[in-house]
Amino acid sequence: MAEKISAEKTVSARDAIMARVRKGLGVRGDEPGRRGVVQTRLRNPAPNLIPERAKGTKPELVKKFQTMLENGGTGVVRVRTYKGVPEAVAATLRERNLPSRVRLGTDPFFKIFEAEPGLLEILGGAADPADLVGLSHAFAGAAETGTLFLASGPDNPSTLNFLPEHHFVLIDAGDVFGSYEECWTKLRGIHGAGIMPRTVNLISGASRTADIEQTIVKGAHGPKTLVVFIVGSARE
Amino acid sequence: MEQTSLQFRENAARALSDPQLQRALRNVKTGFILKRAAARAALPEFDALRDEAAAIKTHVIDHLDIYLEEYERRVLASGGHVHWASDAAEARDIVLSICREAGAKTVTKGKSMVSEEIGLNAALEAADIRPVETDLGEYIIQLRRETPSHIIAPAVHLNRDQIEGDFRVAHAHLPPERDLSAIPELVGEARTVLRQQFLAADVGITGANFLIAETGSSVIVTNEGNGDLTQLLPRTHIVIASLEKLVPTLEDASTLLRVLARSATGQEMTSYTTFSTGPRRDEDPDGPDAYHVVLLDNGRSDMLGTDFQDMLRCIRCGACLNHCPVYAAVGGHAYGSVYPGPMGAVLTPQLMGIHDAAHLPNASTFCGRCQAVCPVHIPLPNMMRRWRERYFASQSALAAPKLALRAWAFFAKRAGLYRFATAAQGRLLSLFPRSMLARLPLAKGWTAFRVPPKPASRPFLAQWHAREQEKARLGRLRHG
C-alpha cells in the first residue's frame, strides 16, 4: 500500500517538474524541431574537440600511454609476447614481495595462464575482501591521460578493481588509443550503440586522497598500487 | 543543515580570528590554484574545451525536458528505476522508502552535495538507518557533526591534529597508544574502519557528476575509490542527482571530464571515473541487484528563463571557491549554507530565497576571478549583481542604505549639482588634518582598519578641465 502511494506521488512530481521546465523554457514539449535535434544528437554521437596530444602513430600513443601512467605513480611492465605474460606477472609479484596468488575473471585473455600451470595460484569470481591481488583485462586505454577502460561482467568482475590491495591490469598494445572517444567507439562495437555494461571503470591511477591538509596519500579505500602490463608491440 | 547565511558578517568576523581555520585555509590559497594553473598550461586546448563544455551544457538546458525523457527511457530499458522529486522533502521520502523496502540498517554514502542539500543524513538517522559517509573528508566532518566547508574538499577547514583528536574519540576500540602523528596513519585507520562498513552496508547512496541521456548511465568522479565500493557492494544502489546533471552522449561527457578534474584538483584525470548503468546483469558475479535514480528539482526548474538560467551549467568543480579572495579569507562555513563561495552566492538565494541569503551576493570583491576560471563560463559576478538588485528592489532591504543610495542617485543624475556638491565636500574635508579623518562617523567598518586618503582640494573633473585648457593654451602658443 505504502509503495502504491509513493509511486502515485512521484508520477505527479514528474508531471509537475516537466510542466515547470517547459514553462521556464517557454516551450510546449511537442515541437518536432526540438525533439529532432535531440534525437539526431543521441543517435549519432559525434566527437567534440580532441586534444592534439591524443593523436599520433600507434607506437607513439603506446609510449605516451606508458608515460602518462608512470607520471601518475602507476607501475608499467612491457611484455613482448602473450606467452611471456604469466612469467611477467609472477616476477612482478616476487619483486613486490607478494604471494603468487591472483584473482581473475573468465576473460579469454587469461587463457594464457593455462599454458603455465603451477606458476601462479589462480582464484576465480568476484573479489574477496582478503584478496591481495586482483587481475583484470582492460578492453581499451586512452593515451591522452593514461586511462584504462574496464567493463564489468563475469570476464572482469568490477570488485577486482577496488577490493584487493593491489590491482594488476593487462592491456593489449593494439587496444591503446589516443582519446576517450576512440575507446567509446570500441565499446559500442562490442555491446551495440547506446548499450552499456553495468559498470565501465575509467582508471587513471591507484586509489588516493588529499582530504587531509591537501597532502596526497595513496591507498585511501581502493588499491594501494596499480600495475599495468602492456602486452605485445604496437604496429602502425 | 542549519542555515546561518543571515549571520554572514558575524560568521566571517569569527572566521578571520580563528587561528586553526586560518592555518587550514593557507592550503587552499596555494595548492588548488597552482595545480589548476599547471594542468591548464599542460593542455593547449584547455580554453577551447571550456567553450565546448559551456556549449554542451547550454544545449542540454535549452532541451532539458526532452533530454530528461530520453534519459528516463534509457534507465528503464536497462532495468533501473527513476524517481522524480520536486523538493528536498520528496527526495528524502523516496530514499527512505527505498531503504525501508531493502530492510536497510546501514547505508554507505559516496560524497554528494545534493545529499547535503536535502539533509539526507538527518532523515536517515531519524528513521533508525545509520548513514556512513565514506569519502575521507565527509567521514571526518560526519564524526564532528559538521557540514562540508568546500564542495570538493569537505574537510579543508581542518588540520591534522584536529582530525587525530576526532579519530581517538570515535575509534575508542583501537589501542590508545597507537601512533597517529602522520597523515598516512590517519588515512590507514579510516581505511580499516570503513572497510567493515562497506561490507556491512545494505544500501549504497552516491551522487552523480553527470547523467548520460544516450545510455541512461550515471557517472561519478573520485580519487579514493570509496564511491565505487559504495555503489558496487550493497544490494541496492541509489543515485541522487539534480536535473541539470544531464549530458547528451559519452562524447559530451568526455569533453566535460577534460575540464572537470583539471579545474577542480588540477589533475589530468581523477583516479576513478565510473559509468553505472542499471542493476547487475544476470551473468554478473558482482554489482547491486537494484538501481534507483532520484531526480531532484528543488528550485532548478524555476531558474529556467530567468537571469540565473546559466547557473545550471555548473559542474561543481569548486574552481570559483578556490580562486575567491573572500572564500580564502573566511572559509566555507561562514556562508552558512550548503554551497559556499561564488557559486553558492548565486545558488543559495535561489534555494533559500534572497531574504534569507541577502548577504551572500555581497560577499564578493567583484574581482571576477570566479568567472575567469569557471570551466563553463558562468557569469557569476553579474548574477550576484542581479541578486543584489532583486534584494534592493524588495521591501526587506535595509532602509538606511536604500535612502543613502537614493540620495546619491539624486545628485549623480544631475551633473552640475553633483560637481558642485563633490567640490564642496572635497574642500570641506581637505580642511581637516588626516588623523581626524581616521574615524568617520558613518564609515566605521571601513575606517577601523584603514586611514582614508586626504581628499583632493579640487575634484577630478575640475582638475581635468584645467589640464585640458592648459594644453590647448600651450598648443595655441606653439602654432600661433
Notable features of this structure?
heterodimer; A: 236 residues; alpha/beta; Rossmann fold; globular; B: 480 residues; 3 domains; 6-stranded parallel β-sheet; 4-stranded mixed β-sheet; 51% helix; 10% strand
Task: Explain what you see.
The complex is a heterodimer of chains A (236) and B (480). With 236 residues, chain A is of the alpha/beta class. Chain A has two domains: 2-43; 54-231, 3-Layer(aba) Sandwich (Rossmann fold), CATH 3.40.50.10420. Chain A has helices at 2-25, 32-43, 58-71, 85-95, 180-191, and strands spanning 75-79, 101-104, 121-124, 133-137, 140-142, 147-151, 166-172, 176-177, 199-203, 208-209, 217-218, 225-231. A six-stranded parallel sheet of chain A has the order 1-12-7-4-2-3, sandwiched between helices. With 480 residues, chain B is α/β, with parallel strands linked by helices. Chain B folds into three domains: 1-39 and 318-397, no CATH class; 43-302, NagB/RpiA/CoA transferase-like (Rossmann fold), CATH 3.40.50.10420; 401-479, no CATH class. Chain B has 22 helices and ten strands. Chain B has helices at residues 8-16, 19-41, 46-62, 64-77, 88-101, 113-117, 120-126, 136-143, 160-170, 183-200, 226-232, 250-264, 319-322, 325-330, 341-352, 369-373, 380-393, 399-412, 415-430, 434-437, 444-447, 460-479, and strands at residues 81-85, 106-109, 130-133, 203-206, 210-212, 217-222, 236-242, 246-247, 272-276, 290-296. In chain B, the strands form two sheets. In chain B, strands 1-10-7-4-2-3 form a six-stranded parallel sheet, sandwiched between helices. Chain B has a four-stranded mixed sheet with strand order 8-5-6-9, sandwiched between helices. Chain B is elongated. The model of chain B has no long low-confidence stretch (mean pLDDT 93). At the A-B interface, α1, α2, α5, β9 and β10 of A face α2, α3, α4, β1 and α5 of B. β9 of chain A pairs antiparallel with β9 of chain B, so a sheet runs across the interface.
